[in-house]
Write a structure and sequence with these properties.
CATH architecture of the largest domain: Alpha-Beta Barrel
Largest sheet: 8 strands, parallel, barrel
CATH superfamily of the largest domain: Aldolase class I
Mean pLDDT: 93
Number of domains: 2
Number of strands: 10
Shape: globular
CATH topology of the largest domain: TIM Barrel
Bound molecules: flavin mononucleotide
Strand order of the largest sheet: 3-4-5-6-7-8-9-10
Radius of gyration: 20 Å
Low-confidence stretches: 9-14, 346-352
Number of helices: 14
CATH class of the largest domain: Alpha Beta
Length: about 350
């Protein structure tokens, strides 16, 4: 994951073509749902809460998908799980992603997601993490297609919003049958597929081979969103045109760089500001994170983001390391403002 973020060296180069011809700027549909452009923020566990999604949308993502939410936690009324389904009224088009292996629990959680304001509900069939797989959920479902189909069907019957599937190509490269799986999910009632062409066993190794995405696009009539290693507007356009997919889904490239959504959605150069502007973006994001998580959890949540935002900025590594041990959010933000030359460190505390 660090690789993608660390390679960032500055604003993305201007993409070729006039903005009005920019293919990612056109809307697309998933069932009845119209999405204003073809750049979708990927589901990201531990990251894509409403502050993150709101930020993605504010910067130009046509749709944002939540972190994965445990359907069993929803069934048991677990407070933390239900809180993960909160959608802020300012969000535009938001999908909630669910994981689980029980069709009835997934259908019930889909109803709760719909009631929470989700515009679509997505099924996680890609997570390679052992803790999730051992329950039969995530990518395990790609090894049990009858169960996966039953989940799609149960959810599609339970809600009016579109039900989508986010899948990897298979469990292992040798066993993968992505075309067959995608066709079966379509027949079971899926309104779209988000496709990451690595196998679960590969985790994040190697390069996402979107030639496999093109095979899936050709095999189904429903829209396919391509996910994996799409980091620049030029790459986004290339994947869109080469595979015929309906949209691109952006994960790691947006960590510390929400401006990438605007560049991809318009074809214009990135509006990523200089360090003072980056720090103000972090402060605004932190204010929302604090509102949803409370002070203590927000400190830890925001620590994930400092190295991502500061990659490629002229900030010494020891300063980044220092931010990761500060126990007070205002103090961390004050230190960041000092680094950006916006405030003397002595008065940094309590600035936000
Ligand atoms: C930190 C992190 C968390 C992720 N969480 C989820 C998740 O909750 N659900 C999911 O379907 N995929 C998840 N993914 C996979 C991404 O949605 C995406 O498919 C993958 O990272 C490839 O796209 P990228 O190269 O644009 O990051 C996660 C990826 C990362 C790096």
């Amino acid at each position: 994951m660090r690789g993608v973020v660390a390679e960032r060296t500055g604003p993305a180069p201007a993409a070729p073509g006039r903005p009005e011809e920019w293919p990612l700027a056109r809307p697309f549909r998933i069932g009845e749902l119209e999405i204003p452009n073809r750049v979708v923020q990927a589901p990201l566990a531990g990251i894509a809460n409403w502050p993150f999604r709101l930020q993605s949308q504010r910067h130009g993502a046509g749709m944002a998908v939540s972190e994965m939410v445990a359907s069993m936690g929803v069934r048991h009324g677990n407070r933390r799980t239900l809180d993960m389904m909160a959608i802020d009224p300012r969000e535009t088009v938001t999908g909630i992603q669910l994981f689980g292996a029980d069709p009835a629990a997934m259908a019930h959680a889909a109803v709760v997601a719909q009631e929470a304001g989700a515009r679509m509900v997505d099924i996680n069939m890609g997570c390679p993490v052992h803790k999730v797989r051992k329950t039969g959920a995530g990518s395990s479902l790609l090894g049990d297609l009858p169960r996966a189909e039953a989940i799609v069907t149960a959810m599609a019957r339970a809600v009016d919003i579109p039900v989508t599937v986010k899948m990897r190509r298979g469990l292992t490269p040798a066993e993968a049958r992505p075309v067959e799986a995608a066709r079966r999910f379509e027949a079971a009632g899926a309104a779209a597929i988000a496709f990451h062409p690595r196998a679960a066993e590969e985790e994040y190794r190697g390069v996402a081979d979107h030639a496999i995405t093109a095979d899936v696009v050709a095999a189904v009539a429903i829209p396919v969103m391509a996910s994996g290693d799409i980091t620049t507007p030029g790459a986004a356009r290339e994947v869109l045109e080469r595979t015929g997919c309906a949209a691109v889904m952006i994960g790691r490239a947006a960590l510390g760089d929400p401006w990438v959504f605007g560049a991809m959605a318009t074809g214009r150069p990135s509006l990523r500001p200089g360090l003072p502007g980056v720090v103000e973006e972090i402060a605004a994001f932190a204010a929302d994170a604090r509102a949803v998580l409370g002070d203590r959890r927000a400190v830890h949540f925001m620590r994930k983001f400092y190295p991502w935002y500061l990659a490629g900025e002229d900030v010494p590594q020891r300063e980044v390391a220092a931010l990761l041990v500060i126990e007070d959010l205002d103090e961390a933000l004050g230190r960041l403002r000092h680094l950006a030359g916006c405030a003397p460190l002595a008065s940094a505390r309590g600035l936000n």
